[in-house]
């Protein structure tokens, strides 16, 4: 018999209410011992929770019982909604560990059980993880859609189409001797396969937005020392995150703040000023600044009117800095009016001041526009993780091979269709993903 697991599923205590969740075959006996009996399923019941050994009343709580398989995990599940005091929760967890067949849950174990019992597919599991991690409205919406199964249904549908195509091809072999099966069946199937490949490729292109929405856009402040980068970070964040002084070389570490720009997640990164002459610590800061810049979705080049145009330094073999979009931010515009109409070779130039009221409004507005353009996701489900991207790319590749190699025997081409279907099955967890599961569930917190 499986272990019965339990954990504090709500956040940190102390809190008004804390929720302890149990799942497994011993839930009923645990409720009998702790609450006196098993309440009617799916109805909140007030119960005194007692220590079964001493009879001591630990707390008065709302108890909810869900009878398997109609529960989150598919097993019997109970929730104890108790008072969120440290001692209350500690004592309840202690008493639960003393009950036969019960043990504390590992991270993600409730969700893992839901997956193992077919209550959720892997994309839904990931959607749930994303929902818990969502920091902005757009992220929340995407996560809810994925948790609801929209992405999994799309991939299942594609997979079914592939399986059907393969069946058609194989049926053709079986009836190859009979005259009444026209050879055009396979032509039609390969036409469908080519069309599906295009659909997958199209989905991959649009899914860049889905991945970006999940991880947030990276906007990196760069520029020479004292250009006003840290001041901009503080102004845009609305709080004093970075140290600002008149000394060149103040910032050495990479600092970041998470901004919610109109529902879109943006990570704004402050970096060390770039210059040739620098001490050891600052040099390391500059190295890190350049690394972050290379991975940026957008670089904001902070520049005083007399300051240098964007220049990221040398020694990056194989990296093309012109690939990274750069905007000029004319800083300290309260001191000197920035040159008009000059974006100094960058996509855009915006003036900003950190000392006058609303001095960074224009920049904030432009960044919000950039975020919504770059990650506008629309209504269709999108791939949100590299894992999905890899599997989809393999699927399209295998499918392309099957379509193109028309001189190969039909059996071999049909086998490619099976492999393509398997790539999609790995995304939803329908087929052999044992190796992946630990990685995916590790991201969950305990109690989920
Ligand atoms: N008047 C005025 N001064 C500013 C403005 N922004 C920054 N400063 C001043 O410029 C100096 C440098 O600002 P920082 O924000 O530390 O510049 P930084 O680019 O982060 O500098 P490093 O971290 O040393 O590379 C400080 O004395 C700031 O007070 C501004 O908009 N107007
Ligand atoms: K400074
Ligand atoms: Mg700084």
Q: Tell me which oligomeric state these chains represent.
A: single chain
Helical content, roughly? Answer: 40-55%
| DSSP strand content | 15-25%
- The helix count comes to 13
Low-confidence stretches: none
The structural domain count equals: 3
CATH class label of the largest domain = Alpha Beta
Shape estimate: flat
- The CATH architecture of the largest domain would be 3-Layer(aba) Sandwich
Any idea what the CATH superfamily of the largest domain is called? P-loop containing nucleotide triphosphate hydrolases
**Which molecules other than protein and nucleic acid are bound?**
guanosine-5'-triphosphate, potassium ion, magnesium ion
Number of strands: 12
Largest sheet: 6 strands, mixed
User: Taking strands numbered 1, 2, ... along the chain, how are they ordered across the largest sheet?
Assistant: 3-4-5-2-1-6
User: Helix/strand/pairing class, anyone?
Assistant: alpha/beta
Average pLDDT figure = 92
Pfam families: MMR_HSR1, MnmE_helical, TrmE_N
Binding site for (6S)-5-formyl-5,6,7,8-tetrahydrofolate: 21, 79, 119, 448
Binding site for GTP: 226-231, 245-251, 270-273
Protein name: tRNA modification GTPase MnmE
Summarize the structure.
This protein has 448 residues and is of the alpha/beta class. The chain has helices spanning 27-35, 86-98, 109-116, 122-133, 137-147, 150-174, 184-215, 229-237, 280-294, 361-374, 386-404, 410-428, 434-442; strands spanning 4-8, 15-23, 45-50, 57-66, 77-84, 102-104, 217-222, 255-261, 264-270, 298-303, 326-330, 348-351. It binds guanosine-5'-triphosphate, potassium ion and magnesium ion (MG).
């Amino acid at each position: 018999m499986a272990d019965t697991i339990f954990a504090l599923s709500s956040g940190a205590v102390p809190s008004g209410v804390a929720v302890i969740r149990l799942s497994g075959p011993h839930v009923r006996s645990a409720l009998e011992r702790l609450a006196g009996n098993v309440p009617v399923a799916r109805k909140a019941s007030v119960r005194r929770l007692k220590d079964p050994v001493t009879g001591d009343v630990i707390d008065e709580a709302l108890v909810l019982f869900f009878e398997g398989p109609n529960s989150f995990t598919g097993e019997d599940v109970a929730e104890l909604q108790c008072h969120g005091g440290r001692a209350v929760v500690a004592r309840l967890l202690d008493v639960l560990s003393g009950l036969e067949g019960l043990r504390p849950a590992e991270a993600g174990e409730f969700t893992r059980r839901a997956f193992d019992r077919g209550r959720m597919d892997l994309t839904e599991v990931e959607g749930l993880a994303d929902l818990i991690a969502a920091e902005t409205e757009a992220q929340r919406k995407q996560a809810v859609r994925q948790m609801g199964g929209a992405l999994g249904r799309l991939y299942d549908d594609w997979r079914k189409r592939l399986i059907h195509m393969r069946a058609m091809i194989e049926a053709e072999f079986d009836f190859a001797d009979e005259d009444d099966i026209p050879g055009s069946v396979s032509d039609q199937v390969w036409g469908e396969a080519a069309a599906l490949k295009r659909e997958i490729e199209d989905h991959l292109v649009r899914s860049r937005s889905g991945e970006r929405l999940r991880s947030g856009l990276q906007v990196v402040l760069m520029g020479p020392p004292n250009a006003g980068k840290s001041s901009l970070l503080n102004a845009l964040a609305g709080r004093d995150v970075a140290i600002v002084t008149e000394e060149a070389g103040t910032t050495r570490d990479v600092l970041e703040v998470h901004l919610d720009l109109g529902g879109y997640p943006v990570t704004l990164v402050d970096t060390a000023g770039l210059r040739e002459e620098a001490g050891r610590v600052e040099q390391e800061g500059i190295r890190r600044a350049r690394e972050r810049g290379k991975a940026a979705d957008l670089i904001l080049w902070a520049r005083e009117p007399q300051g240098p145009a964007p220049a990221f330094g040398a020694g990056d073999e194989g990296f093309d800095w012109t690939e990274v979009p750069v905007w000029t931010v004319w800083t300290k515009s309260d001191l000197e009016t920035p040159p008009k109409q000059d974006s100094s070779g960058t996509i855009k130039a915006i003036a900003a001041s950190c000392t006058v009221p609303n001095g960074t409004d224009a920049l904030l507005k432009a960044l919000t526009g950039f975020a919504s353009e770059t990650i506008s996701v629309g209504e269709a489900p999108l791939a949100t993780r590299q894992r999905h991207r890899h599997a989809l790319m393999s699927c399209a590749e295998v499918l392309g091979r099957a379509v193109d190699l028309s001189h190969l025997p039909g059996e071999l081409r049909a086998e490619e269709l099976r492999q393509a279907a398997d790539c999609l099955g790995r995304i939803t967890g329908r087929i052999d993903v044992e190796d992946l599961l630990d990685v995916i569930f590790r991201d969950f917190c305990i109690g989920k």
